[in-house]
Amino acid sequence: MCGIMGYIGCKEAAKIILDGLAKHEYRGYDSAGIAVIKGGEIQEIRTTGRVSVLAEKVAKANFTGELGIGHTRWATHGGVSERNAHPHISSDNRVVLVHNGIIENAREIRTDLEARGIAFHTETDTESAVQYLGYVYDGDPKGAIVKLTKRIRGAFALVIMFYDRPNEIWTARKGSPLVVGHAKGEGFCASDPTALLEYTRDVWFMDDDEIARITREGCEFYDFSGAPHEKKPMHLDWDAAMTNRGEYPHFMLKEIHEQPDVVAHTLLGRIAGEKVDLSHELAWTPEETEKWKKIHFVACGTSHYATAAAARIMETLGNFEIRTEVASEYRYRNIPIDEETLAIFVSQSGETADTLHAARLAKNRGARCLVITNVRGSTIHREVGEAIITPAGPEIGVAATKTFTAQITALTLLGMYLAKLRGELSPASERRLISALMDIPGKLATILSKEREIEALARDFADARGFFFIGRGLAYPPALEGALKLKEISYLHAEAYPAGEMKHGPIALLDKELPVVALVPKNGLWEKTVSNIEESMARRSPIIAIATESDEEIRHYTSHIIFTPETEPELYPFVAVIPLQLFAYYIARQRGCDIDMPRNLAKSVTVE
Amino acid sequence: MCGIMGYIGCKEAAKIILDGLAKHEYRGYDSAGIAVIKGGEIQEIRTTGRVSVLAEKVAKANFTGELGIGHTRWATHGGVSERNAHPHISSDNRVVLVHNGIIENAREIRTDLEARGIAFHTETDTESAVQYLGYVYDGDPKGAIVKLTKRIRGAFALVIMFYDRPNEIWTARKGSPLVVGHAKGEGFCASDPTALLEYTRDVWFMDDDEIARITREGCEFYDFSGAPHEKKPMHLDWDAAMTNRGEYPHFMLKEIHEQPDVVAHTLLGRIAGEKVDLSHELAWTPEETEKWKKIHFVACGTSHYATAAAARIMETLGNFEIRTEVASEYRYRNIPIDEETLAIFVSQSGETADTLHAARLAKNRGARCLVITNVRGSTIHREVGEAIITPAGPEIGVAATKTFTAQITALTLLGMYLAKLRGELSPASERRLISALMDIPGKLATILSKEREIEALARDFADARGFFFIGRGLAYPPALEGALKLKEISYLHAEAYPAGEMKHGPIALLDKELPVVALVPKNGLWEKTVSNIEESMARRSPIIAIATESDEEIRHYTSHIIFTPETEPELYPFVAVIPLQLFAYYIARQRGCDIDMPRNLAKSVTVE
């Protein structure tokens, strides 16, 4: 959802900003731009395409200056064009800014300013903000920004420079993430803290309704009325080395291979003597947990599918009333939320706008809230407070892989812990599941060792018109996630269905060019799923079966089989998802897609 | 799911069976066949393709006889071929039968019989039944059938003739529908009672675990141990004329146009003096309704989407804990179901196997059960007991249209009635909604009058690679149903998403050949949905907006607009779905698809 980088210091700003933008590219990459101030003049270069294209243009230009701002874009309002790329400059050339978010009343502001004779040059919502600033700026940056925050409605992280202010960069935030950092004689701001890791690990996460002034000497913070306040920095526990892809051709493949470790790390410190123990993270008492009559899982995209898996796992552990909701729907429906609700919000980045707003709603209604996120100190973490942090490390590939696995690990532990506090988890079940969870990393490694087989299978099916993914019960959520992966990186239409639901409509699409990926673990639903496989075969669909390694009978139905190791039935989603990630990866690679930065997508979705 | 017709009497059986099969064709039409007995010999003709192809073959053959059975097939086990078509005859030519359902242990029976030297000729599960019957038949039909019912596992409606029994047809049922009828000197059996309407309106719906012997004199009924029992006939309230499509080129179009009447009929007798009153159908007391802490909606396909709409409507009426579940998943998950649960099952045919099994489960767990169905006396109706019957009349088009509208009408009334009994519905809200519901038929007629506009729009988009349908809140369920219609009859990949969820993955697919149908009513979510439209436009997707007629602003975003009349916000699904049905219809027509009998599909889905 757009990435922002700002710098002020003693070095050449363009170089640092271009480096920073490259680290933000996963957030949007349909166009990019940069602006610096030198001698009272704003210089700017913009382009469609990647940051690398921008870097070439910058290299050819004489582009020096020690403060600057940059932007990599994921288009919302206005098509992808150089004109619509950021930074945007006011018509009077006095103000320049970059923006992440959406200004909802842009059309109205524009109409108003045009009536006052100000000419607009782009189709973006952002231009309304910069033109408004140019219109009200009278030498007092803070005063102008305060006015702006009162005029615009929507979500924004803004980084602003004024032509006559060579010693400061200004930022303002509401709803979109922004982090500010300071090292000796240098100030920074960025959408993603990983872009600052090589300069400093002590950062300030900006809060909503906050303005910052960044100078070479330090950072000052104000609220939207302009009043100053103190703010403590936070120490980042990630390492700059984590953001390199090493030997792997793509971050996505690297991250797929990290999953055995990620599961092991997520279990670490949360298991003691074959028992689950989350007491150091969750201050829950047994009495309290009795009070929660219902559990709401709220998330988007891959995180939503992780909750779908978790719900089915948890249902086997105790008598839980669970609903899993898409965050953008949860917010606006009239779902009863009250003090008897435990609401669990799952977001890799901790910045997902839809999820954040849903969390605020639930909190207001008196629900007990908890967040599962991969980013300590992210907005949702700070606002919700109670959290389980997944230690997956930075995920750079836009298509989530290792964070899905980390999330289902954390959620399984969470479900067990809750069932245990309520007295619903027998010691025998606890031992059985903990032991099975400890075996998961080894099982995932086994699947990863079949990478070449999966690659070969993907090569055979890379020309398919599309795919259906089917599964029943615990096999359905990984089917959803497998279809999503394929959509995201191969641009093929893949849709997941509960296997029993295909015959109620979608089966009409099946023919020999539309394969069906069937998740058919050897469990109580095997026969039913095989019946659905036969229905698909009767329509000549090629079948790719994800089957359990002991299942020889599946060979009667298809020769395209990926075998996964046996697990306890509840943990099936763990082993099912890995081959589907690899399958999507190799289909996309065969089709020549840009795997780490699929078109149209952005990783951390901070607009609604 | 396969259609069966059987006849014994004084006329030429083939003619009556072919007529009956034509009325069953909506249930499956990939192949068809017929068998008669004449002079102790079984004659048979089978073919791939439609009943009309079978009729041509029969016309050319010398095919006389006064008892016979016929079948039109929707393939489950075994591809579509003449060999796999029914009827199936035992290798010793003594028994012939047709079957609807699935025999789950077919492979095992086959292995067993092959070991005893019996040669199999097809890939079907059904052949195991007929070969087994041939193997055990010793001149006692009932005894052989009793043995068969003990040997086979799965779901079946079987109609059986024995070479040496010219005066009787036998049937057995477990899980698949079958209706038996008798007129003077003639006996009938069929999957669908509408096939019997022109001969008799007094019929016996067969129950599970029931065997029938049909003769020219009457019908006798037995249980699976062979013991006889009395059974009362039921009077059908449909009319044979309802099963003609009149001037319309397709049943689907006729049924789309029936919707204003269907809504009016569904309201009839359930509204009195601006108040909802379901007391003559539902014996509910206010005290009882207080006890139901949660509501489960369970259904498949279009009926499932009707419940998704109903859930969102009901949430606005009172403090309801509602979950909507796909029947094939509900059955096998560990969702808590208890005496505090009101479980509502929705099935057009009342024969949907998945839904029926889910209803049995909920009943066993102590839930209060209720069924919404279009077929009085259908299996689910008989088993659940408490019901609201939608008076939509027979729906012949395989893609459901008028029954969806009837279902949401009934469910809206149901929600209001429940809220009222609980004291949660204010008299003002009740009046407002009743008055708005009474206006719905007129509003639907207004939309239908725009048919030519919608047809023109469909013509422009008939070559699209696929479609996404997006909507938020009350606009999401009609988006789901619109996408399903398009999938079913045009074979295009259409998928619905909550509008806010597109950016979390599926947006990767968008480009100028993948249009987005956006449901964007003028309500509190208009701005948010328009933001999602802009995101799609930025990826060059053509936008088709389903907008509210007063909404001039939508013209800024697209020129492809279908305007729907304003309604009370809760009732938006009623007006949204009609243009989507017509859009799907005309896309399919433009693409030359067989609209009333789309490939691979069957109307009444009586297998799992």
UniProtKB/TrEMBL annotation, chains A, B:
<dbReference type="Pfam" id="PF13522">
    <property type="entry name" value="GATase_6"/>
</dbReference>
<dbReference type="GO" id="GO:0006002">
    <property type="term" value="P:fructose 6-phosphate metabolic process"/>
</dbReference>
<dbReference type="GO" id="GO:0006487">
    <property type="term" value="P:protein N-linked glycosylation"/>
</dbReference>
<dbReference type="InterPro" id="IPR046348">
    <property type="entry name" value="SIS_dom_sf"/>
</dbReference>
<protein>
    <recommendedName>
        <fullName>Glutamine--fructose-6-phosphate aminotransferase [isomerizing]</fullName>
        <ecNumber>2.6.1.16</ecNumber>
    </recommendedName>
</protein>
<keyword id="KW-0677">Repeat</keyword>
<dbReference type="InterPro" id="IPR005855">
    <property type="entry name" value="GFAT"/>
</dbReference>
<dbReference type="GO" id="GO:0005975">
    <property type="term" value="P:carbohydrate metabolic process"/>
</dbReference>
<keyword id="KW-0808">Transferase</keyword>
<dbReference type="InterPro" id="IPR029055">
    <property type="entry name" value="Ntn_hydrolases_N"/>
</dbReference>
<dbReference type="GO" id="GO:0005829">
    <property type="term" value="C:cytosol"/>
</dbReference>
<dbReference type="InterPro" id="IPR017932">
    <property type="entry name" value="GATase_2_dom"/>
</dbReference>
<dbReference type="InterPro" id="IPR035466">
    <property type="entry name" value="GlmS/AgaS_SIS"/>
</dbReference>
<dbReference type="GO" id="GO:0006047">
    <property type="term" value="P:UDP-N-acetylglucosamine metabolic process"/>
</dbReference>
<keyword id="KW-0032">Aminotransferase</keyword>
<feature type="active site" description="Nucleophile; for GATase activity">
    <location>
        <position position="2"/>
    </location>
</feature>
<dbReference type="GO" id="GO:0097367">
    <property type="term" value="F:carbohydrate derivative binding"/>
</dbReference>
<dbReference type="Pfam" id="PF01380">
    <property type="entry name" value="SIS"/>
</dbReference>
<feature type="domain" description="SIS">
    <location>
        <begin position="284"/>
        <end position="424"/>
    </location>
</feature>
<feature type="domain" description="Glutamine amidotransferase type-2">
    <location>
        <begin position="2"/>
        <end position="217"/>
    </location>
</feature>
<comment type="subunit">
    <text>Homodimer.</text>
</comment>
<keyword id="KW-0315">Glutamine amidotransferase</keyword>
<dbReference type="InterPro" id="IPR001347">
    <property type="entry name" value="SIS_dom"/>
</dbReference>
<dbReference type="GO" id="GO:0046349">
    <property type="term" value="P:amino sugar biosynthetic process"/>
</dbReference>
<dbReference type="InterPro" id="IPR035490">
    <property type="entry name" value="GlmS/FrlB_SIS"/>
</dbReference>
<feature type="active site" description="For Fru-6P isomerization activity">
    <location>
        <position position="603"/>
    </location>
</feature>
<dbReference type="InterPro" id="IPR047084">
    <property type="entry name" value="GFAT_N"/>
</dbReference>
<feature type="domain" description="SIS">
    <location>
        <begin position="457"/>
        <end position="598"/>
    </location>
</feature>
<comment type="function">
    <text>Catalyzes the first step in hexosamine metabolism, converting fructose-6P into glucosamine-6P using glutamine as a nitrogen source.</text>
</comment>
<keyword id="KW-0963">Cytoplasm</keyword>
<dbReference type="GO" id="GO:0004360">
    <property type="term" value="F:glutamine-fructose-6-phosphate transaminase (isomerizing) activity"/>
</dbReference>
